[in-house]
Amino acid sequence: MKQAGIAYRVVHLHPNSHAGYYPGAAPIELKVIYDDQGKILGAQAIGTEGADKRIDMISAVMRLNGSVEDLQLIEVAYAPPYASAKDPVNYAGYLAADQRQGLVKTIEWHEVDALIGKQAYFLDVRESFELAAGKISGSHHIPRGELRGRIEELPKDQPIYVYCSVGLRGYNAARILALNGFDVYNLDGGLKTYEQANYETGHMKVQPRTADQGESFSTMVQHGTQAAKIVVDACGLQCPGPILKVKQSMEKLNEGEVLQVQASDFGFHKDIVAWADATGNQLLKNDIVGNKVVATLMKGAKDSHDDAQQTLQTASNNGGATTMVVFDGDLDKAIATFIIATGAAAMGKPVTLFFTFWGLNIIKRQAHAKISKSGTDKLFGMMLPKNADHLPLSRMNMAGMGPKMIKKVMADKNVDSLAVMIERAKQLGVKMVACTMSMELMGVAREEIIDGVEFGGVASYLGEAAKSNVNLFI
Q1: Environment class of 203 (CB within 10 Å of its CB; exposed 0-12, middle 13-18, buried 19+)
Q2: Which sign does the torsion angle of CA 161, 166, 169, 174 carry?
Q3: Rounded to the nearest 5°, which phi and psi values hold at 449?
Q4: What predicted TM-score, i.e. pTM, was given to this entire model?
Q5: From 3.20.20.70, 3.30.240.20, 3.40.1260.10, 3.40.50.300, which CATH number describes the 317-473 domain?
Q6: What residue stretches are annotated with the Rhodanese domain (predicted)?
Q7: How many other C-beta atoms lie within 10 A of the C-beta of residue 279?
Q8: Fewer CB under 10 Å: which end of the chain, C or N?
Q9: CB of 184 within 8 A of CB of 160?
Q10: How confident is residue 355, by pLDDT bands cut at 50, 70 and 90?
Q11: What is the DSSP letter of 470?
């Protein structure tokens, strides 16, 4: 199009192939090109699932001389295992329409380096903990949630180029700044697009911290005291299943022994790097081979020149625990709670779950001795779910059909049931505390609570929260 002299604009976005709360959602990298009149000129999509369907939809609109505004209105079949309520194609239409209506000005990834060379003012609006994953060189940082209160820190005598991970928070920040008189541009597709465009293709190479540059794998294995290669197959397991498999297998190994793990969850490619750093084990290889992630680790055996700061246990002693207030009693939120809890426990972090109000339904026994109740206690007992098997969904409950559907999908995708997650959390040492005040208000007796749960009040929770650096309310 450049050679033909055709003016065009572009949007980049990074949605999932289907609803994120259903297992198996895969990322799609989607790019749509259009002209100044909104006519669609082309599109590209990359992903392991659903990319072809999105291109089919866009090509059909193109065949009918449709515009990006038509993408906003396109209707597609919807069910959580196969799509989202708003399809990625709809989102592409929204982004392009916002640009055409003048709601936001954008820059593209290939313009960033030239702007850096001119010392342009880049503003990162992500949260502080996200900065460790990378940033644009020389950029300033104000989280989007703090932007209104810190707006006086920004210069008005030059353009401001805002960015976030994928573009959404950057868009919100750009709108705030534009309405306050700033000349502002949002990085289309966010930092993810910029990093992907500058990514060097090929397998990721991870050098072991105990091996010299260029040393062969077999030589590295010989550094172990009793090198015995063990292979673990974690394919089909969803997060945090592969990490749990690694943790459980590593506990059985001696210092210097080698573990190889295969996983079909591509998020494991990044997770295993963080896990190895946090636990003090050595990541020897971390490759994507076909449709699998294959990682090789050596247990411990650090040399004196190992530059790791400390293990996660040391961090835990200095406030690195995780606490969660489990207030809601919906099935999907309960599943999310125990996925996060077991994942944190697998990283070696102390985890405390404080169940209060509706969250108490999650930790009720399957069966218990008959308890005599009266008044409101009896009424609550009749109206509330009997146990974790009877929890509703927060969305699409459909008179009880929704929970049955998601349980079937979980079984099909080899995702543990909630009951199994709870038992696994116990095995990993997750501390569960039931709020006694909430139990009294809602007529829940101690005999109704599963084994292994402690009883305490708000002081118990606050005491654990004071030791943690991650505190969530679910």
Answers
A1: exposed
A2: positive
A3: -90, 145
A4: 0.51
A5: 3.40.1260.10
A6: 116-203
A7: 20
A8: N
A9: yes
A10: very high
A11: E
